[in-house]
Design brief:
This protein is 33% helix and 10% strand. It has a two-stranded parallel ribbon with strand order 1-2. Helix 3 links the parallel strand 1 and strand 2. The chain is built from 3 helices and 2 strands; from the N terminus they run H-H-E-H-E. The chain is of the alpha+beta class and 98 residues long. The chain has a domain of 57 residues. The relative contact order is 0.14. The two termini are 28 Å apart.
């Protein structure tokens, strides 16, 4: 259930408890998921459009629930100030950008 409270400072929308995290993180990438990296590349391209259209060139960004850090690494490799936060997944690709 989504909480009706929205933080005015950053637009963060909290939700009630992560009830299924244990099951979701047992095997986060399925063997049959052959497009996982393609989706990250697609997301990076769309994020670039949004980033250039709406935000200051020097703005920093946080990927809350950033998983293995794949998206963060893509964005940092392009040259943007992105960081990752995910206490439930090991940071494999964006070490040092927490």
């Amino acid at each position: 259930m989504i909480s009706p409270i929205i933080s005015g400072a950053c637009g963060f929308l909290p939700i009630d408890g992560p009830y299924r995290l244990g099951a979701l993180y047992q095997q986060p990438i399925k063997v049959s998921d052959i497009r996982v990296l393609a989706r990250y590349m697609d997301s990076a391209g769309k994020s670039l459009t949004i980033r250039f259209s709406l935000f200051d060139r020097n703005a920093g960004f946080l990927d809350f629930a950033g998983g293995y850090g794949t998206f963060i690494r893509l964005m940092r490799d392009i040259g943007f100030d992105f960081y990752r936060l995910d206490p439930h997944a090991e940071n494999l690709f964006a070490k040092g950008f927490v």
